[in-house]
Amino acid sequence: MSNILLDLSLSMVKKDEMENMKAFIQTAHRLLHESLGAGKEFTGWLDLPNSYDEAELNRIKYYAEKIKKESQAFVVIGIGGSYLGARALIEALNHNFYNELSEEKRKGPAIYYAGNNISSNYIWDLIDLLEDKDISINVISKSGTTTEPAIAFRVFKEYMEKKYGKRGARERIYVTTDKDRGALRELAEMEGYASFVIPDDIGGRYSVLTAVGLLPIAVSGINIDELLLGASDGVDEYFNEDLDDNICYQYAAIRNILYNKGKDIEILISYEPNLQYFAEWWKQLFGESEGKDNKGIFPASANFTTDLHSLGQLIQDGKRNLFETTIHIEKPKKDITIKADDNNLDKLNYLENKTIDFVNKKAFEGTVAAHTSGRVPNIVIKLPQLNEYYFGKLIYFFEKACAISGYMLGVNPFDQPGVEEYKRNMFKLLGKPGY
Ligand SMILES: O=P(O)(O)OC[C@H]1O[C@](O)(CO)[C@@H](O)[C@@H]1O
């Protein structure tokens, strides 16, 4: 049966180096599964796909349908883990030009994002774009106090109330936040907004398979049952503590081996442009989980072949402190056959009857060969197809690999104390009371 596969043949790591990681992997496995590790109170994501509350799932589907019916545009307000996972999957699993499609062709409203920056230009332009559209909004914040989404929501709440009146706005505002704490929870109760809960034991960057991600994802027409099925199969498949039989743990182990050899930048590569935000989600997951105590691999991303024409030189020939992890999609959703041309001025007739995906795959093979000859270790994660099932499983694969990798690195993979530093300075400069 087809499955996600991990190809380590070009990772430049020897078999015995992997063997030597077995004991560390088993320790990390126990820290995670027996709740013995740092941040153990934030491991609710581990079994979530297997224990999903059916009633909650049905509520998500119900409101997703309501939003679809009532809206031409849907605005997701959130930052970091409170929007990246949703955006990653909405873009990866839909049409490349989803928002530009006609309403008949699209399976849901156009989806826009706010509260992920503090640019007045951005908010202004978004409001301008939404002027003649019927909209609904989903404000997502676990703490309920993050500045960026809080400011955006203040603007959008006023906008909605002007456009639809207080009662009408109430019907179109959806809140995803903590069960009982925070300003957003208080507001949701006070205003009577439909609301969803981010479980206490799941941090922002691990929350894509909760209502945080599932509501916006379902609104875009993606099958969330298939997504959860993939993740749920991942729970079983990536449980085995024997390194030989667990590709998720192999990925965690090899990252640590490479890091200890001075490879402190990992570039996540894809040959599909609509995986750009999947890479953004992955960057937060690994960056916020591992980058602490003066340690951690810097997670970067590139889209090939596009970036081969900008970053390719550096990867091939620059400082040898990086490795690549490619997400390789075996079968495209659609393909195009290249035809012969009578004039052949572009000299492309040698590709007659080959498909564009065939060329993309040759570009991948050629690139991996070039970069490994330039001493860049390459890890390849192969997915049979770009669909809900495999991406659900891949999400879980990375979440778990990240937790295991963080424990092997000796950090708490579930906190993010460093992020507070810029906030404190900003609050002081803004004159926030108490700072
Ligand atoms: O959901 P919240 O509480 O608004 O947080 C959003 C993001 O901000 C951070 O807390 C960092 O400040 C991330 O960890 C999180 O994903």
TrEMBL record:
Q: In which pathway does it act?
A: Carbohydrate biosynthesis; gluconeogenesis; Carbohydrate degradation; glycolysis; D-glyceraldehyde 3-phosphate and glycerone phosphate from D-glucose: step 2/4
* GO MF terms held by the record: carbohydrate derivative binding; glucose-6-phosphate isomerase activity; monosaccharide binding
User: Which cell locations does it reside in?
Assistant: Cytoplasm
**SUPFAM superfamilies xrefs:** SIS domain (SSF53697)
Could you list this entry's UniProt keywords, alphabetically sorted.
Cytoplasm, Gluconeogenesis, Glycolysis, Isomerase
Q: What class of enzyme is it?
A: isomerase
Q: Which reaction does it catalyse?
A: alpha-D-glucose 6-phosphate = beta-D-fructose 6-phosphate
Pfam hit, one: PGI
The record, for InterPro entries, names: G6P_Isomerase, Phosphoglucose_isomerase_CS, SIS_dom_sf, SIS_PGI_1, SIS_PGI_2
Q: State its Enzyme Commission number(s).
A: 5.3.1.9
GO cellular-component term (any) = cytosol
Gene3D superfamilies tied to this protein: Glucose-6-phosphate isomerase like protein, domain 1 (3.40.50.10490)
For this protein, the parts annotated as crossing the membrane are none
Q: Where is the active site?
A: 288 (proton donor), 423
- Gene Ontology BP annotations: gluconeogenesis; glucose 6-phosphate metabolic process; glycolytic process
Q: What is this protein for, i.e. what is its function?
A: Catalyzes the reversible isomerization of glucose-6-phosphate to fructose-6-phosphate.
NCBIfam families per the UniProt record, alphabetical: PRK14097.1
What family, per the record?
Belongs to the GPI family.
Name the record gives this protein? Glucose-6-phosphate isomerase
Native source organism of the sequence: Tepidimicrobium xylanilyticum
